[in-house]
């Protein structure tokens, strides 16, 4: 398994790090050899930053999932929003499969606004949602995937709920969505 530790594990957006894990002893030996020869060993500061993030990982994941759960009904009810998807929602088509694969829900969801311009208006009107491709941190972020060449609607947003106060985040997202419909 290859994973980015930059995101949820470290959680603060201040380290670029990842890891590879494997069960096969032969593969582990080859990976260690490649790492040693290539110099892909993190420095002490990077390791400390990731270790610091681990201390709050459970708390952050719990808050992110609660914030996503609070946002889903608001998004579903708003006229500017279409195609809300979050596996933690019992009405989501992926819920049954996700429930069998996940121990807990996460903070990542997606929804679609009418256009690229609507996404820009939403992000400009929000005080709490930042535009970023790196998810899983303390702050709520959103990413318009079409700008990276993904074959999706221009207004599709991947959205990573952060650790802000739930009421503040819901109010901010609602206000930003209302700004689009004015």
Your description of this structure?
It is a single chain. This protein has 182 residues and is of the alpha+beta class. It folds into two domains: 2-55, no CATH class; 57-181, Alpha-Beta Complex (Aspartate Aminotransferase, domain 1), CATH 3.90.1150. It is 44% helix and 14% strand. It has helices at residues 25-38, 44-55, 57-77, 95-101, 116-125, 166-181, and strands spanning 2-4, 18-20, 82-85, 108-112, 130-131, 141-144, 156-160. The strands form two sheets. A five-stranded mixed beta sheet has the order 3-4-7-6-5, with helices on one face. The chain has a two-stranded antiparallel ribbon with strand order 1-2. Helix 3 (57-77) runs parallel beside helix 6 (166-181). The chain is elongated.
What would you say about this model in short?
The chain has 182 residues and is of the alpha+beta class. 44% of the residues lie in helices and 14% in strands.
CATH architecture of the largest domain: Alpha-Beta Complex
Number of helical elements: 6
Give the overall form: elongated
* CATH class identity of the largest domain: Alpha Beta
How far apart lie the N and C ends? Answer: 46 Å
Look at the structure and name the CATH superfamily of the largest domain.
Answer: Aspartate Aminotransferase, domain 1
The helix/strand series, from N terminus to C terminus, equals EEHHHEHEHEEEH
Overall structural domain count = 2
Structural class: alpha+beta
Rg is 18 Å
Largest sheet: 5 strands, mixed
What is the strand arrangement across the widest sheet?
3-4-7-6-5
The overall pLDDT average reads: 92
């Amino acid at each position: 398994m290859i994973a980015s530790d930059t995101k949820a594990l470290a959680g603060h957006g201040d380290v670029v790090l990842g890891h590879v894990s494997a069960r096969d002893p032969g593969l582990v030996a080859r990976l260690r050899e490649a790492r040693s020869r290539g110099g892909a060993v993190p420095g002490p500061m990077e390791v400390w930053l990731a270790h610091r993030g681990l201390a709050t990982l459970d708390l952050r994941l719990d808050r992110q999932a609660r914030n996503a759960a609070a946002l889903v009904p608001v998004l579903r009810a708003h006229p500017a929003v279409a195609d809300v998807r979050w596996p933690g929602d019992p009405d989501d088509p992926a819920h049954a499969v996700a429930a069998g694969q996940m121990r807990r829900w996460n903070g990542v969801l997606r929804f679609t606004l009418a256009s690229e311009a609507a996404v820009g208006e939403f992000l400009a009107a929000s005080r709490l949602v930042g535009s970023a491709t790196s998810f899983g941190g303390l702050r709520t972020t959103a990413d318009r995937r079409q700008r990276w060449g993904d074959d999706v609607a221009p207004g599709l947003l991947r959205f990573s709920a952060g650790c802000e106060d739930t009421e503040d985040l819901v109010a901010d997202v609602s206000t930003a969505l209302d700004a689009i419909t004015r």
